[in-house]
Amino acid sequence: MTSRIIAIARNTLTDLVRQKVFYILLVFALCAIGSSVFMAQLRVEAQFQMIKDVCLGAMSIFTSLLAILATANFLPKDIEDRTIYTLLSKPVPRFSYLLGKLAGIIVLLLLFTLLMSLVFAAVLWTREQSALAAIRMEFAGAPAEELHQAIKSVTDATFNANLIPGILIIFVKSALLAALTLFISSFATSSLFTVMITAAIYFIGHLQATAREAWLQGVDIKWWTRILIAVISLLFPDLQAFNLADDMIAGAAIPWNVFIETFALGWTYVAVYFALAAFVFAGREL
Question: Coil, strand or helix: which one is 90?
Fold first, then answer.
């Protein structure tokens, strides 16, 4: 069974790489990250903060888009091409089919995240070299201690280990959205419907924390309000919990307990949504 899942995952990854949507998103993501070099025309520290803000935002948006669009398309496409009938006519359980598809998408998201991270690091390295050259010229006749302090302020603001946990959380968030989209596509009638519902849940997931705080600020909170908040929290993932970019942009390290809890929460959502997708898809008529 493991070999079948790996084979399905490999074929899914190959098929997704060949699709135009991957290249369109890749071009947009690389343009967004590369353009941050030209946007940052401020003092040195502010330049690197802006670059990180733009790059991390682009990584989060485009990995989320890729997760939703790629996952929403594969099931209707397999049904239209009748590929799914060929696979399921063999001794391949529906569970293995879905797991292989999800695994292929997650591998694609990982490669996509790694590629953007490399471009992100290259952008910061380019700006770092430019800033260091300018500092050496500016502090040419200054004491060595002042030069060292100025250089340190630049190197501390570039790509460092503090960014890695945040980038991993961006990847986990995209895997969560892929599993969520898979669940919706298991009962949806079209890819457009899947994309629309997932997009709605995406915005609700980002706004529910703010709405929950606003609802709970009242002195007299009705019982039905608490029930509604609990239901929303169970049905929709709190995607704002995966937004750790602000601390990273400021140069602060993400506490390990926060990283581990968020990382585990993301994969828990992936497991739950996949289990729901497998359950629904097992009873679906094709």
Answer: coil
Question: For the whole model, what pTM was predicted?
Answer: 0.84
- How many whole angstroms separate alpha carbon 226 and alpha carbon 215? 9
The first and second tokens of residue 147, run together, are: 């030069």
Tens-digit pLDDT profile for residues 77-112? 777 767 766 666 666 677 788 888 899 899 989 988
Look at phi and psi of residue 142 and say left if phi exceeds 0, alpha if psi is from -120 to 50, else beta: beta
Residue 212 has, within 13 A of its CA and on its CB side, a CA count of 19
Q: What ranges in 82-143 are assigned the alpha helix state H?
A: 83-89, 94-138
Q: What is the DSSP letter of 241?
A: G
Residue position matching structure tokens 């739950």? 272
**Angle 111-113-119 from CA coordinates, rounded to 5°:** 105
Q: And the tokens for 222? A: 């009705």
- Cα 56–184–211 angle (5° rounding)? 55
Tokens, residue 3 = 């070999």
Tokens coding 11: 């074929």
Tens-digit pLDDT profile for residues 150-180? 666 666 666 677 788 888 999 999 999 999 9
